[in-house]
Amino acid sequence: MNLEHICYGCFQEKPDDSPVCPHCGFNAEEEQPFLALPMGTLLNGRYMTGKVLGVGGFGITYLGYDLTLEIKVAVKEYMPSGLATRHSDKYSVALTGRGQEDYQNGMERFLEEARILAKLQNTPNIVSVQNYFKENNTAYFVMEYIDGMSLKAYVASQGGKIPYDQALTILMPVMQALTQVHALNLTHRDISPDNISITTKGESKLLDFGAARFSIGDEKSVSVILKHGYAPEEQYSSKGNQGPWTDVYAMGATLYRCVTGELPPDSIMRVHNDTLKKPSELGVPLPPQVEQAIMKALAVKAEDRFSTMEAFIEGITGKTPASFHHRTMAVPSGQTAAGSDGKPGLWTRFRRSHIGVQITALVLCVAVLGLGVWGAVAGIGALTGGKAEPGSSDGPSGTPFDITVQEPEGVDDVALQDYAQEYLNITMGIPQGYAETESGSGAFASSDGSATLQVGFYDKAAGFPVYTLSDVEENAEKYVQYYIGLLESTNITKHEILSRGYREGSSLDTYLIQFSATESGGTTMEFLAAFIECQNGFGCYNLIGSYPQGDEKAQAEIFAAMDSFRSNGPAGTIYQRFYDENLPFQFLYWEDESEIQFTVLRESRLRMEKSTAAVGVEVQSQQISDTFNKEIWMDGIAEVLVKESFQPRKERWQYKSGGIDWIVDEYTYTEDDTYLSVYGGEYGGLAFVILISAATEDELFDGMLLDVTNTIRPVK
Fold first, then answer.
1. DSSP, residue by residue, 59-121
2. pLDDT value of residue 30
3. What CA–CA distance (Å, rounded) separates 61 from 194?
4. How far apart are CA 573 and CA 613, in angstroms?
5. I need a surface site. Which of 35, 226, 275, 447 has the fewest CB within 10 A?
6. 158 CB contacts (<8 Å, ≥6 apart)?
7. Sign, CA torsion 37/43/49/54
């Protein structure tokens, strides 16, 4: 690498000494923030500083480059602007007054953050620290560089709020990480959407442990660290009793903000006049268990909250915190699901009923495909992030969509370099000059940054599951709308589908969608999404290329890479497909098949039993006709249940999941206090009914239920 032509905005080599980088657009002549180190400063003989990523009252964070490992890093410098300034040599830090003791104490607290992160080095979903040291009369620590966007920015790009299942997908890994933080007797104390980042790989990372403290007794005081709306009332006092329950409140507030679009009132104001509204009161329908868990996490008094993050997780999902999905045992043949007190389950009674019951589930772990990746797309300026105007359902000039994607000239002349990914189990060619933006990311950019290519796996990220490529064909507009929403900017003024259709002559069945997006400055980018058949029995490979509109060379490179794609076997995925030839439906689930007992009953009914979780699920479907639909079915079930001593718990409510509008009835069996929920939905000419029974009300919101409601589809 020629350091004389290095770009301090992305640490790629520039072709000349121009101040503007052709890869990322960074202008080296732009003024850096006050007190910042000169770009190109070498620290600890190893780390080169670049542009400033952020400035706070006590520190400055720089983009850095590790010359030893040859990777980008983030470098945080202790620089308390109220106590110190930059020396005339532009590097050393000098005190501005007599606050030597305060400065040194602050530096120790700064280094304590580095030590805390070092203890959490191997904890997933927490930013890792790689080094820390003193230099220039101050201190530094080096962290992994997070390429992505904050949860705050992502929620803003989606119109100010996001669906609760998507919020849980993002936040659950962070909640899991916090259980490990708390196990070390640590409390973060500053959880909010600002401090949670979503990487280009779709991973959630918890940042900024500057406020974290080891738990201490009430006899000692702690610094008052506040973020209004997210801080519980005990953080308003230096002697407040803080612990895991403090982070529970902040996480509850973060989840509340994501799903409602509103910030909870300050906790200190709620002590005397609690005006906090339930999400349902704000027009956000949530499964009762989710709403109850959020409201309990946001209890003003610590003793009324979940005392641990594990309890909060269980309150929302009922899932085992250690693995974020149930670990259950197969039920021996003939055994029925029972409550924790050993009472008989509901299945014996329902087997005698003439009405079959079926359960579906909402996916909790929606993969955020490509989230933040297009921040790497240079030349599109502000086109990274934001809401787009609704796209047209027709092609160019209003023509119906029977236009297949036309191959550009020059595809056969493109030089390719070999690429293989073990997890996806694929090989393909990447155009010469394209480089992977981050090792293992599957995202590549051309040498000038104007074109990008990403490879991944798709199963249900855009709100519809994929079993065959026809599912993509039917939901092309939904996919494009979803993808445009993932781009970071709010300046997209127009987007449209240009063409779509199956790729003729491809070695694997491939469906292509070509679409464009224009930002307010007039720059238009085209995107080519290829969905390629796989050997998993569900899902598909997803390749996405982007290039400036009219750039036929870049378009030919993307086509050549897609045509070179080869599958070597099933792709790696955390999901499995349930299918039985005796049943007209299928679904995806995130469980070990050996830990669930699947039983196909007569009348096309499926029973799933989890003995250790005291939860039973049953699913059934019937053809919709002029005289039969989900409402008629649900009304008939309600009539039978009431006759069999089931007591309705609340009025019928609605909620949407997996592209299906569900209606839900909830009951209690008065003889043994067993809890029951019945879900009814319709899709593809079939009516579905799903029944879930549990020993407690909290267990009704089960992970298997979530999976089924979000992905159930007729077998074609």
1. EEEEEEEETTTTEEEEEEEE--TTTEEE-TTSSSEEESSS-HHHHHHHHHHHHHHHHHHHHTT
2. 84
3. 15
4. 25
5. 275
6. 387, 485
7. negative
**String of DSSP letters for 495-514:** EEEEEEEE-TT-SS-EEEEE
The total of other beta-carbon atoms located within 10 Å of residue 302's CB is 19
DSSP 10-27: T--B-SSS-SB-TTT--B
Q: Show the tokens assigned to 110.
A: 């700064």
Task: Give the span between the Cα atoms of 374 and 502, in whole angstroms.
Answer: 25
589 vs 701: which has the higher pLDDT: 589
Give the integer Cα–Cα distance in Å for 464 and 450.
31
**Who has greater pLDDT, 700 or 196?**
196
Residues 464 and 473: their CA atoms lie apart, in Å, by 11
| Whole-number average pLDDT of the chain | 79
In one-letter notation, the amino acid at residue 242 is Q
- Residue 700, token pair as written in the block: 């009704």
Top pLDDT among 540 and 327 is at: 540
609: closest CA among 341, 321, 338? 338
Sequence-ordered list of residues with C-beta below 8 angstroms from that of 663, at least 6 positions apart, any chain: 630, 631, 634, 652, 653, 654, 679, 680, 681
Other Cβ atoms less than 10 A from the Cβ of 688: the count is 27
pLDDT value, residue 257:
96
Asked if residue 629 lies in contact with residue 612, where contact means CB atoms within 8 angstroms, the answer is no
